[in-house]
Design brief:
With 454 residues, the protein is α/β, with parallel strands linked by helices. It contains 13 helices and 7 strands. The chain is elongated and about 125 Å long.
Length: 454
Amino acid sequence: MSTTSTAPDQEPRPPDGKAAPPGGLRRVFATVLGGLRAAGASLAAPAGPAEPLLGRSSRRWVRLVPYVIALGFVATLIPVTTQVLSNDYGVPGGLAGALAVAQAAPLVLAVSRPLLAWGIVIVADIVGAIVIQGSASHHAAPWTPMVIVGYLALCFVLSLREGRRTVLGVWLVTVVSGLVLDMFRPSDSQATSVLMIVLSGGVLLFGALLRERGEAQRRLVEQETINEAERSRRTLLEERARIARELHDVVAHHMSVITVQADSAPYRLQGLTPEACEEFGSIAAGARESLGEMRRLLAVLRSEDASGGERAPQPGLGRLQQLVEATVRGGVPAELSMPELTLVGELADVPPAVDLSAYRIVQEALANVVRHAPGARTQISVSKDEDALLVIVVNGPAGGHASPVETTGTGHGLIGMHERVRLVGGTLDVGPLPGGGFRVAARLPLGESDSPSS
């Protein structure tokens, strides 16, 4: 029993003996069919939700404008189309009215669903062109002037809402239908297919350019919003890192005191048991280890371009007078009042973190006066009540050119003030004054306070 084998590169033949189409031709057919399916899918699927044109406007009259314009087109085109089809083309009145409604009424639908409206209109326009073929002598064919006006308005609305592929597909359908219908129009009629092709292409291109420009502006606004949020977050993190670097000296001082006291306790105190001496040694070792960890943490927090000033001793309320005098030399008439804090003992009662925060708040407030209200008279008041330090900086109207107070800076702005107040669990009140000027008021607790977590 013998068997016949077919070479793998041979094309199989159908049972009737006819040669099958070559593989290359089949691939071409498959490509064309795939392209047609893709074009049909792009024409059938709208680019966005069924949202009315200008529907995102906050003003009601703006949202109604597209409907008013569409109703104006419909109210004009329906009676004109009916009369022209009846009188000039001899179309029966009922059919002329039906064609006029089908060709013009979908313009109202185009405000929210332009692709669906276009599908209805193009079918109605083609049917109308077929109806007038026999009686279009000496008249416009295949598209009447009313069809062209309504179709161009529809194309403009559609190009504002749909993507490039859909717009191109709509124009190609317009081209093909116009050329095919032009082949059957009476020879003595006025050809309008080329006019429709050129005008619809121009309108679709213009609308598409407007839509893409609007989308580019919208994306630019969104990106700027994202960038601003990232910039604010980065500024906040940088400010917190800067505050942490400044507080290093405060915490390191306390840890150093603990280390010295624990190391010297066996020599200062008489009668300590060996266990107590060992406990003090353990405390000193733990404090020294903590200091080492803090130095490594400071190395991480310190920026690469950190200046040597960050390694200098941190300022406090005792240096406010020098700060105010430097500000006065810079051209800002400033006065400092701190009646309860004139004695060294009073300043010693202020915790180091509060001392540093109060100085930085006054410094940043004065810096904002110099930058944004040059020449404004400024009053600085620092006082104590039973459990808090009160810092108030008030400046009058600007003596020179004023500019808005910045809220996102790199250490000398409202973000820095808020972070320093949050650090010690206090409160901050900032804002413009009714008669002009600006006020900064901070209340910093002197006792233990749980600062809110971020």
